[in-house]
Amino acid sequence: MSGPPETGTGGAPGAAGTGGDPRAERTRDRLRRALLDECRKRPLAGVSVAGLVRRAGLGRATFYLHYPDLDALAVDACAEIVRDAVEALHAWRGVPDPAAPPASLTDFFTGVVPHAALYRALLREGGGGPLGDLLHRELRERSRRERELVGAAAPDLVASAVAAAFTGLLADWLHGSVDSGPEDMAARVWRLLLALHTTPLGPPPRTTPPE
User: How many CA atoms within 13 Å lie on the side-chain side of 117?
Assistant: First the structure.
């Protein structure tokens, strides 16, 4: 949770590799926007490929050229939330203040609300699901790298704890198990994650074996 923000990773697994073809990226962008528009009106389970491509003005074959199914498109459409979350948790300089979460973290929780129904379909309670898996993996890797850069203890252990805590908290908040507004949630999550990062994790004390 230190150091300058970095650019997030690319699209989610499931999107066809197109070698950065701008035409293919424009097509995927149309499909992503069409899905988000559809999910403002109905849950993901109620979206059909036929309705989606009709909204996007594309053919059904074009959809399957880029995505194997709607879940893969949905994860790709939601990949921005993963990038935003990773950056929000690392967008600070100097010594972190437990009482002042980064503004980007508050913005993140506020920005999640309009698409909460779609995120709930992909991020199950406890942090499972395709979006949860992606978020956990990206957060764990970024946190591990950051701790290694500053020589902090137990980078693998803390990175896993941070990723699991944030992903699970976000999921439970989206599903209503955690009752907090976006600003309050950002402040509470910030303090919890700082506690994980600052917990002493040096070598365990040596004990003298009994004689």
Answer: 14
Measured distance CA(205)–CA(45) in Å, rounded: 53
Contact 40, 67 (CB under 8 A): no
SS3 3: coil
Contacts 24+ apart (CB under 8 A), 157-162: 157/201, 158/196, 158/197, 158/199, 158/201, 161/196, 162/1, 162/89, 162/193, 162/196, 162/197
Helical packing angle, 70-77 and 49-56, nearest 10°: 50
What are the E-state strand segments in the chain? none
In this prediction the pTM is 0.76
CA–CA distance, 104 with 91 (Å, rounded to integer): 7
pLDDT digits (tens, 9 = 90+) for 149-190: 989 999 999 999 999 999 999 999 999 999 999 999 999 999
* Mean pLDDT for the chain overall: 85
